[in-house]
Amino acid sequence: MLQDVKETPLPILQVRNLEVSFGAVPVLHQVSFDVQKGERVAIVGQSGSGKSTTVAAILRLLPGLGQISRGEILLDGLDLADATERQLRTVRGRRIGLVPQDPMSNLNPSMKVGAQIADTLWGAGMRNRAEIKARAVELMAEAGIPDAERRYGQFPHEFSGGMRQRMLIAIALAGEPELLIADEPTSALDVTVQRQILNHLQTLVDARGTSLLFITHDLGLAADRCDRIIVMADGRIVEVGTPAEILLNPQEEYTKALVAAAPSLSPEPPSTSTSTGAPAAVVPDTSSKAVPILVVKDLVKEFKLRGQRGGIVRAVDGVSFAVERGTTTAVVGESGSGKTTLARIILGLESQTSGETLIKGQSLSASGSAERRALRRMVQPVFQNPYGSLDPTYSIERLIDEPLRIFGVGTKESRQRRVAELLDNVALPRSIAQRRPNELSGGQRQRVAIARALALDPELIICDEAVSALDVLVQDAVLTLLGDLQDNLGLTYLFITHDLAVVRQIAHNVVVMKSGRIIENGGVDQVFLAPQADYTKELLGAIPGAAFAR
Amino acid sequence: MSVITAQRTRKSDAEGLGSGRGRVWQLLRRNPLGMAGAVMLALVVLVAVFAPLIAPYGPAEVHFSTPYQKPGTVGFLLGTDDLGRDIFSRMVYGIQASLKVGALCVAVSVLVGTPLGLLAGYWKWLDAIISRLTDVTLAFPFLIIAVGLAAISGPSLTNAAIALGIAHIPTMIRVVRGETLRLKESDFVLAAKTMDASGLRIIFSHVLPNAASAIIVQATVIMPVAVIGEALLSFLGLGIQPPTPSLGIMLSDAQQYIFRSPTAAIFPGLGIAVICLGFNLFGDALRDALDPTSSSRK
């Protein structure tokens, strides 16, 4: 991969002792690294580690009060750290291309996509309209956009997320840059799309000999895609090495923790959950004789399409499965697979078009309001976004005891005791009770959300992407907490996720969904080791870092 | 070195932001424009409350021997008008009247607009009714409505204030409805639904507290408009009746002899400007401070 390092001894990008501060607060300390010509370097770190700040500093696009307080950024000898704005304009886009993170917001929605590439080409010095158009179509085709000629005249909203990201790649490559910076280019996309796009990006970059600086939070992805990995934490470089060095033989404590926490790199389910979850089978466990806690039978949910006469989309299409008490069932699927609609129906937030959901043998839709209330107590959710699921005006105590107040459980004192107990359960200090959600970190908030879900002693917890918004280390801690709670309280989880790697870590059974239908359903080992459906195989193949899994 | 430590303390200050009201106050205090607005408002409110103590003369006390005095004349700080009334005293009482109108107007629009907005935002079938009504009302300029209502109910301070308040209800409904629509979809409302919370409970314990900042900010927007609206209604003879002063009446009176004594128009005009500016600056700062997402980043 790194063929011509010896012929070109001078690195294309040299960052030397870079220090960046926001106001008086330093955020980057002594960051030094090189990118060789044609080399692919990954910067891996959690949110707040300074990886995006590093990129912004290289492009001299630091937001707000940010400024480079010390150090050099040498691009082929030109120091970007004190280049003039005029010099920078010849660099951005033309010598350094950027593939930004969010394909949804990085294209101008009121401008045809072709015109957006044409803009870059114009900026790169092309002046002949016909040539620009021809080149733009060529770039789009190269980026893997089918029927590029026709799509040249379309608007961004006519493109899917993956297609938009391809557009952004095409725009980034339009100026023929020597260095391409990709800042979490696929973190908003589904795994299979992610794989296609990264494969494509890799061939494009290889063909041109462009260097790649790849920013990601996913160690597995970095290992798959790059020649060298730089691990950052708290604005410092922790460790640098080849993927094999970092993943198989990490030197620093932090890197070790990161590697251990990365779900995609540790496919063995942790021992804690296997102890209780032995009956990991699809067939209802006859020994327990009890009714499954959740039965979904031929569930169908149709949505009317807006603006189209009689247009109907089937979000959930004849889904049936059962969940045994005390087990974890993961529902896996990409965006649009109907998994979230399924969760909302089970939570009683949507009504199904046909079919049934039975909780402990009782139907949520058929029962009277008193019974429905009782069933509601048994099923509680933990939502994806810990920043959105907690009312910001409430104190932590009030958040956690809200369900108790709604159901009129206990007195004020007993509720206070219960909140303290629940905080202990989720390993949060009791002193936190009077604080407000915006004073807590993402992981702490998710713990509060779990405590709230536990308040009514439910038996089934629906986790809708409950850990996908969290950093790996935090995610690992929350998953461990969920496992412990299951062991201690005998909880049942329905775990909705797009992340197969997480599934391996906690689930006993897996339901794979696509376009509203169940593609595969079985025990976790069965699905992971002997997948039947092609789609499952594809999903499994797309998990990054598989080559380095231990 | 001292600079560094100073900024350190500021940073730790930012991290140590308390919760609730304390935090809002700290954020407000750090906004110099907002503080300027707050000082202006404090001044105006103090003047209004202590009007009888501050004003050297009664608001309608005439001195026929000394009309058209220039500002700074002994005894008349800001001069006198055509009837020899002390402009300073009249302004003090005028500010009092203007603030009364503003407060009453805001009270009417908030008390009526907020519940309707909450209902319209939360329940779709009610939205159809309430929103059509607001659409119809919004089709008329609010001043036309206010003028019409004031004309029907007869000229007085209270009627003018209520007319202005009613004219502002549709905008209030719009703001609250929009916030409710947004908050209704938030995850914490979903979570409350899974706890089997009733619609009213969700509206009052989740939606209203989170919409409060928008309502307060909208109130600070309505307030200066009401003050100007009162000036306009009084100008048209539909508001406060002479000889009771209000800033609007003073303006309209002064217009008759504006070339002879321009200061008689300038000072009430400045009074209106200070009130409006104060509310606008303070409202902007309040909006930033109340926004829970704009936490300690600044």
Can you put this structure into words, describing what you see?
- The complex is a heterodimer of chains A (550) and B (298).
- Chain A has 550 residues and is of the alpha/beta class.
- In chain A, 36% of the residues lie in helices and 23% in strands.
- Chain A has helices at 51-58, 85-91, 113-123, 129-142, 148-151, 161-174, 191-208, 219-225, 243-248, 253-261, 271-276, 339-346, 369-378, 396-406, 412-425, 442-454, 472-489, 500-506, 524-529, 534-541; strands spanning 13-22, 25-35, 40-44, 66-75, 78-79, 96-99, 179-183, 211-216, 228-233, 236-241, 294-304, 312-323, 328-332, 354-359, 362-363, 379-382, 460-464, 492-497, 509-514, 517-523.
- Chain A has a 6-stranded mixed sheet with strand order 6-7-8-3-9-10, with helices on both faces. Chain A has a 6-stranded mixed sheet with strand order 16-17-18-13-19-20, with helices on both faces. In chain A, strands 2-1-4-5 form a 4-stranded antiparallel sheet, with helices on one face.
- In chain A, helix 7 (191-208) links the parallel strand 7 and strand 8 (211-216).
- In chain A, helix 4 packs across helix 6 (161-174) and helix 14 (396-406) packs across helix 15.
- Chain B is mainly alpha-helical.
- Helix content of chain B is 73%, strand content 0%.
- Chain B is built from 12 helices and no strands.
- Chain B has helices spanning 2-15, 20-29, 32-49, 51-54, 87-122, 124-138, 142-153, 157-184, 187-194, 199-235, 247-254, 263-290.
- Chain B is elongated.
- The model of chain B is unreliable at 1-19 and 294-298 (pLDDT under 50).
- Chains A and B meet through helix 13, strand 16 and helix 14 of A and helix 1, helix 9 and helix 10 of B.
